[in-house]
Amino acid sequence: MELTLLGTGAPAGLPRPDCPCAACAAALGPDARAATALLLDGALLLDLTPGAAFAAARAGRSLTGVRQVLLSHPHDGPAVEVPAGLPQPGRVPDGRELTLLTGHRVRAVALDAPGTGYAVTGPEGQRLLYLPPGGAPAGLAETAEAYDMVLADVVGRPDALAKLRAVGAVGPTTDVLAVHLDHDVPPGPELGRRLAAAGARAVPDGVTLAVGAYEDVPDVPRRTLVLGGARSGKSVEAERRLEAFPHVLYVATGGSRNGDTEWSSRVAAHRERRPGSWQTVETCDLVPLLKEEGPPLLVDCLSLWLTDAMDSVGAWDDAVWAERGEKALRERMQELTEAMRVTRRTVVAVSNEVGSGIVPSTASGRRYRDELGRLNAGFAAECEHVLLVVAGQAVVLRG
User: Fold this and answer.
1) How far apart are CA 231 and CA 59, in angstroms?
2) pTM of the model
């Protein structure tokens, strides 16, 4: 089954008309995108958008062989003149299946938002799933056969991928393409980085792909360290890297701190951001979790783990530190990094970067700063990806 992407952008396109934002200003050349529309084997058109005939011509395709035009959006979209020779656009009711004379079978997929998704099976058995902007499947079976290709609003609804992965509909070899791309993420390297973290990719308008053919599907990094200063956005970045995956275990190392209302507000803000399918455990005992098999771990954060570790070895007392505390802390840090080296789980860990600020005025403060620097360096050495978040922008240090 051959797929031509006549457009890969949001309904208003990218850049949006008359939008002065930075992302729209940068969406030039191959980063400019028309509204998403798909042409399958020249016979099936999913979503009729303005300029579809010209887009097909630019891609070296023609719409003269189209036998069915289906709409996915929750509305009929902008007023579009139907090119001569094309059938009138229609919509398949949820759960119903349409069979074309060309041998394609199209099943309408129910969504958790207005609109219609389409599962298309080609004449030779290749399977594709197309979801409209802002939509995720609803009422999925407990287990499902993996699609060869999924096209979805990965940036706007990463949880759609999580739902599909949970039932096996997206597997290790599924080619996940991000469509309906809008100005929420700057185009170029930042978009590629965000999508790769979800195991997805983007292609320019006009590209033709063979559904079911092996593509260079991005490998999701198994171990990632996200560094940053206070309120830099490091926790948001870490959460974003796993929001397309189900059953994440969120490891909170800071505890509840009863009576500290400011801390409670921070914890509540973090909890509200997390998908409902995630579980939370409050512990600093990270080594057993790293050694176990299980779902991805999000550890927030190593800075508080270190505070707990220094408490346990008496590191704040100069005499204890000199006698046995330093050695005991080094052993705990080494045990943690060694567990990180051999873990088979996907892990995203957060830590503070404190070495570039004001030098602490106390010996204990300087000790903590130095040990956190050592912990970050040792932990980063075991990670495929290391990011530094500054002013909400992730700078890739490794990977």
Assistant:
1) 45
2) 0.88
